[in-house]
Amino acid sequence: MRIPAHSVCTAIRDDIVAGVHERGSRLTEELLARRYGVSRVPVREALRTLEAEGFVVTRRHAGACVAEPTDQEASDLLEMRMLLEPLGAARAAQRRTEAHLKVLRGLVRLGQERARRGNSEDLRSLGGWFHETLAQASGSPALTSTLAQLRHKIAWMYAVEAPADPVESWAEHGGIVDAVARGDSERARTITARHTERATSAHRLRFPGRPAAPERGDGVRTSQHPVNMPSLRH
User: Are the CB atoms for 179 and 191 separated by under 8 Å?
Assistant: First the structure.
């Protein structure tokens, strides 16, 4: 069975974000195909997509390599998210469906419950699902796709400190959902802007001012991520 290129792309992107493929390291089609258990064709397609997204660059005499964003490029990503997250919330207030609201309310209930218990790992995952669902509720595939790419790249470049007050953070999530449910675009935009600004202050660059990583073989750590395993996220 042919493994689709988007699945290969997801696997490579996830490993770049996790640091399995190091910044500046080469990404050869042959080694990637062997690593993920696929042919070179979907690997080639995936590398083209990842280059368009900014995770991969093509260098003369080296071929495809993991990108090495500058501090300024990383900072620009946070600024872009601060502009687009509130826009997505405002659009969601106009276009959300009852299905979106049901999921958002369920995530807020779980988040508030976990926040009271102090379970930070669950909160990180729930927060990601919340913002992904909120973006989908905007009814704009282009905006949803752009925000998803921003989240991936920010997770790659930044470490995020847990909120000082997770209960307050999830109260803000609840306020966003209330505004979206009422169709109040401006309030949804305002609360989301405040929430995003607060979250941005907790981001710390993983590699501030770091020079290019020296080449060591293929630059790949030892963990494996086969594409044709059921655990792969699509």
Answer: yes
65/214 Cα distance (integer angstroms): 12
Q: What is the pLDDT along the chain (234 residues), one digit of tens a residue?
A: 466 788 999 999 999 999 999 999 999 999 999 999 999 999 999 999 999 999 999 998 889 999 999 999 999 999 999 999 999 999 999 999 999 999 999 999 999 999 998 767 788 899 999 999 999 999 999 999 999 999 999 999 999 888 888 999 999 999 999 999 999 999 999 999 999 999 999 999 988 765 444 444 444 444 444 444 333 333
Number of Cβ atoms within 10 Å of the Cβ of 180: 29
DSSP-based three-state secondary structure for 119: coil
Report the b/e string of 123-141 with b at 16+ CB within 10 A: beebbeebbbbbbbbbbbe
Strands of the chain, DSSP E? 56-59, 63-66, 158-160, 203-205
